[in-house]
Amino acid sequence: MTSAIADSLERFVRECVIPSESAFAAEGGVDTARSSTLTGLQDEARERGLWNLFSSAHPSAALRDLIVLPDLAELVGLSPILAQAALHALNPDALVMELLTALGTDEQRDRWLPRLTDGAIASGYCMSEPDVASSDPRSLRMEAKRSGDGFLVSGRKSWCTGASTPGCRFLVVVAVTEPEADPRRRHSLLLVERNDPGVKVVAERRVLGYSDALRGGHPDIEFQQARGQLLGAAGDGLSAAQQVLGPARMLHSMRLVGTAERALGLMTARLGARNVGGRALASSDLWIDRVGGARIDVEGIRALVRAMVTHPDRALAESIVKAHVPGAVARIVDLAIQAHGADGLSSTTILADLYAHARSLQISDGPDEVHRRVVGRRELRAR
Amino acid sequence: MTSAIADSLERFVRECVIPSESAFAAEGGVDTARSSTLTGLQDEARERGLWNLFSSAHPSAALRDLIVLPDLAELVGLSPILAQAALHALNPDALVMELLTALGTDEQRDRWLPRLTDGAIASGYCMSEPDVASSDPRSLRMEAKRSGDGFLVSGRKSWCTGASTPGCRFLVVVAVTEPEADPRRRHSLLLVERNDPGVKVVAERRVLGYSDALRGGHPDIEFQQARGQLLGAAGDGLSAAQQVLGPARMLHSMRLVGTAERALGLMTARLGARNVGGRALASSDLWIDRVGGARIDVEGIRALVRAMVTHPDRALAESIVKAHVPGAVARIVDLAIQAHGADGLSSTTILADLYAHARSLQISDGPDEVHRRVVGRRELRAR
Amino acid sequence: MTSAIADSLERFVRECVIPSESAFAAEGGVDTARSSTLTGLQDEARERGLWNLFSSAHPSAALRDLIVLPDLAELVGLSPILAQAALHALNPDALVMELLTALGTDEQRDRWLPRLTDGAIASGYCMSEPDVASSDPRSLRMEAKRSGDGFLVSGRKSWCTGASTPGCRFLVVVAVTEPEADPRRRHSLLLVERNDPGVKVVAERRVLGYSDALRGGHPDIEFQQARGQLLGAAGDGLSAAQQVLGPARMLHSMRLVGTAERALGLMTARLGARNVGGRALASSDLWIDRVGGARIDVEGIRALVRAMVTHPDRALAESIVKAHVPGAVARIVDLAIQAHGADGLSSTTILADLYAHARSLQISDGPDEVHRRVVGRRELRAR
Amino acid sequence: MTSAIADSLERFVRECVIPSESAFAAEGGVDTARSSTLTGLQDEARERGLWNLFSSAHPSAALRDLIVLPDLAELVGLSPILAQAALHALNPDALVMELLTALGTDEQRDRWLPRLTDGAIASGYCMSEPDVASSDPRSLRMEAKRSGDGFLVSGRKSWCTGASTPGCRFLVVVAVTEPEADPRRRHSLLLVERNDPGVKVVAERRVLGYSDALRGGHPDIEFQQARGQLLGAAGDGLSAAQQVLGPARMLHSMRLVGTAERALGLMTARLGARNVGGRALASSDLWIDRVGGARIDVEGIRALVRAMVTHPDRALAESIVKAHVPGAVARIVDLAIQAHGADGLSSTTILADLYAHARSLQISDGPDEVHRRVVGRRELRAR
């Protein structure tokens, strides 16, 4: 059955998503919160049984099959943002669906999950804080005080992805609820309604030039006595988040293999089409060498990702992959940009979007340095 | 006197321009065509005698003094876009002012130059064409036919910087007017009024996520029998453009030295301010090593630029500098981004803007590959 | 059974070969033609059933089992030269044994193979020519003229590996015997006795400082009417050589994975043992980061090599691996050198030997550029 | 006058030294302690007034003229080892001559200096110790005990350059003589006769494959109650050594600019001479690009070295240059090796020697990491 899904997904991505990219870009691309192109693709995905494909809500539960997952993820990575949006696999909603499913009470699930799963509403995720290195989540310090059967949340969160999307109805917030506990057991996840009067969006920011309105931007939020409800057990916040973020990191990198293939495909097409001084660039030794190098790099990235999927030490394997893949893919995309000249920089091609996506992943979910440090310390201890 | 200008410019950049960057960013930054922050800075620049500083219109004619120029340009490069905009030194207007001054008839100059110099109107520059490698300007093929005492221009130009700015009144267009001549003598510069009915903007594009509305975007234009007037002699187009673009390339790189200094300064400030695990990042061996490497790179770039200023072979020196500096500076800015974590990617800092600026210069005015090729061929011939 | 061999090989390499490295180095290492340390190791290998392990002469025929081969080869790569020498797996003998086995007549095999297999005699291999790019074997031009039932060989060969070893009894020589045929069918392999009066060694050379006397150096040979005998069919020379060299390339890279592991292991040991300013280097962020990066690189190289083993297009997979692995491993070894300071450069450690070995493989058996070109052209054609 | 010296030196290097390289290599090159080619060059240098050119013993005292020095040093760097040996400018003798001149008593100078200056005898230099990071000289711990009017030296030194040369008559040894003083004031320089019965050479080592017999190798020495005499004041050892080593570092880098020029020149010559597939490599886009990049790098290195000569902070400038130049030059030489194929690795060309020379300088006189750290810390403090 999984191979039927792979076929179906491949047709969807190649026949529907990629051909829609320029219409999507003309509507504003990732900087627009509403795109009829996207809505059409989402309807198509539902019809083809691909809606929520990478979520536990999908009947095939593709996410759990480690053998077929890299193939599926690569297909999505060919057009990573638009395909994920079309499949309803974009964060924060994808992440929040998993958290609600795994940790929510019946009441919480009943209230939010069906509409979130369906795409009728959206969610936001609030973890980072200003002046705290996100690479060390234990140092997150915003507190929530118990009040009645819930909590009152006060303080500032930054990079609250999703919070500015029009359909956003609630936020998942990481806050210190057990200040006296061991640092790994201090934080809880809280559900906060988006329209709580204590929730105030105070700063929007662009990321490498993009507003990312499509996924609700990345604003700061000032919480002022906002009411929150526990999601999962008190003190479990960091470990619950980690349990969902770990596989998400691996999935990011699997998709990026497809992104690198896309960039390489665009590069070879361009080199074949463009003449300089009466000679196709594709017959230039320099570009043949670079294409050869890029193909070798893509095969190396793919092989590493697939080898690490079955590595016995999951955390180490995730760090190896996360430290290597986004940067390597960003360099391939950058080379494809250079092969396109000015068009590569511009919204005429999808390359600048792909670059921003890959480059951002060298920082989000733990910067390269943090993951290399994890790997290096493990190696030195193993000595 | 030049040192008085340098002092004045330094105060202006450090006391006025840099402190205005966040207000400018809040107004939309390079993506806004109208910024009151910018208008205020421009007024201030006029008052301080710095308006048009790098243009031949400025009494000090700083542009011609090769000794002081690197110092001045570095100061501008500390905040390259906003400072250039404040000084009225941004292309295409800076370029077009020089072309009009050097090549315009009295009538042409009287008509456009005073208002352009004053900033009351703006200009556009149309050189690139779709499907033609800009690195080989002789292959530009849009034609203009003689008609009366002027020309009728028909065809498509791409990357028409400036053409979408609200104040744009005229365009400088490179077109083939002497199709039978030697390839180096076929093109002429033509002046075309922006509101000519045959001038139609047909495509806008973003560059690495930015619309660049501040300098009028980079749209395509479809010319349909638009009326053009010779600027300079028929057949002189490419050599005239080269004469102005050559020094401009050098100037770009001189400014980028300041841009690299700015990024390095932001990086060290951030590393000093940010703690991870109770220890300032500034005391991490890894970041000390990277800062050391960045300082060495900045000194290397600066030394190269200054050494090449007096190189006897101007064209070779321009290619050496243009092939090396933008990429080297983009890497330093990229490192500063990484040192800032997510803030480095975001519009909270100026780093993403600086990156897009430096990275674009690896392609505009001749991609790195073209300039390396010039240098490599010269070397192999010199053998 | 293969796993028993792997265990046996691992014990041999770790308990016998590696502990013998310094005694071998004290005898002159790769620069000595006679080493009692090596003789002892060879006796030990025979006793343990590991002699000729990677040759078709070995009962297990390990070379043909693609699943276990990478594991075995990695073990050898931990001490690549000494282990290969101990196992009788060093070129040119390893290569010549395969050629004789595959192509030799009964008479040729009877005459040379038993003694060669046993290590009683040695062989040389003569392919390269001065002023001919080895990357294009079809351009090799030394001719051999038919004479009686054999050939008379005249001309100069360079890089005749093995020819100066004391036990060398015969040479395999690539020569044009069918000058009128298609360029791919012009060359034959010829057997020439080493003591033929027409065989004259005319130049010895060192390679990155080493004489490589252990494997008979890399002299030039001037052939003057030396008598040669066909090995295999006339005109089959290049394809026969290719059939043996292709898998050899893959095997080189498999071994280099072990070489990279060795370098990484030496690096972490040194960092743990060395204090600077009262602090172990192993606790320096900079070196932790580099160790992390090296581990990631090793995993990437290993994953690529193993993925390419089962790639359907063998020639492409060989080029991907050959273009990537030696350079990547040379960089890891170079980093380990730097971690050791002056000791890393010196014969106190094995690192300089490992570097020379890996670096040389970026050129021998086709330089990186040639293999990247193969990959790039395939990619551009596949478009 | 300096320009006359530059002319004379240029003729000597180009007309005498470079053409002698292959004869020198045939005699064993840097691995031979006695070369008649070298003796001939030395005689020629004396005759032309170039003997001891870079020493304070030379009438022109070229070493002190910072303007002409880079030009002279570049010329020497074209053939760095042979030219230095021919001019009597090779360490340790060059270093020891300066130390004796600056610090020796009349008696010490009378005894050693004339013969050392003349080349009749040679010297050795003993600073490094096993298990002590040379990058932190204050941690050197071999002690010398006062005894009569001298000292008794016991302990082990490593990397005693010069100690194994046949003419070596005395050693300069760094030892702790004031164990109670501040760490910067504990060490003294001592003169020890080479034939003292307490001087025992215990280990020879090769460096990247070379024995460096030409300059007396780099053995370990075990001192057993060897008699030493103060050179300079007690406690001044480290500062005296630093005063001579600092400029030497700068001089090393100046020479390396010439080494890079040499490698680039060999590379372009080879590319012009070698055909692959009927086309000169010099017309390959890939190699044109690499040659262009190498030329740009050479100009960048040269400009940095020359800019740093006049930098007000000498120690910082030395670290900037020392951290950057050897590695950058090693990469250029490595590229030239690749352009030569197997010949580049071999003693057929001088490239492998040049590589070993440049690569070693990334470690000797302070590894790159130490100098980058100096620069990085300065930058972070300057914030």
UniProtKB/TrEMBL annotation, chains A, B, C, D:
It holds the Pfam family Acyl-CoA_dh_1. The keyword Cytoplasm does not apply. GO terms for cellular component: cytoplasm. Its cofactor is FAD. InterPro entries: Acyl-CoA_dehydrogenase, Acyl-CoA_Oxase/DH_mid-dom, Acyl-CoA_Oxase/DH_mid-dom_sf, AcylCo_DH-like_C, AcylCo_DH/oxidase_C, AcylCoA_DH/ox_N_sf, AcylCoA_DH/oxidase_NM_dom_sf. GO terms for biological process: fatty acid beta-oxidation using acyl-CoA dehydrogenase. Keywords: FAD, Flavoprotein, Oxidoreductase. It comes from the Bacteria. Residues 125-213 form the Acyl-CoA oxidase/dehydrogenase middle domain. SUPFAM superfamilies: Acyl-CoA dehydrogenase C-terminal domain-like (SSF47203), Acyl-CoA dehydrogenase NM domain-like (SSF56645). GO terms for molecular function: acyl-CoA dehydrogenase activity; flavin adenine dinucleotide binding. Residues 235-378 form the Acyl-CoA dehydrogenase/oxidase C-terminal domain. PANTHER family: ACYL-COA DEHYDROGENASE FAMILY MEMBER 11, MEDIUM-CHAIN SPECIFIC ACYL-COA DEHYDROGENASE, MITOCHONDRIAL-RELATED. Belongs to the acyl-CoA dehydrogenase family. This is Acyl-CoA dehydrogenase. The gene is acd_3.
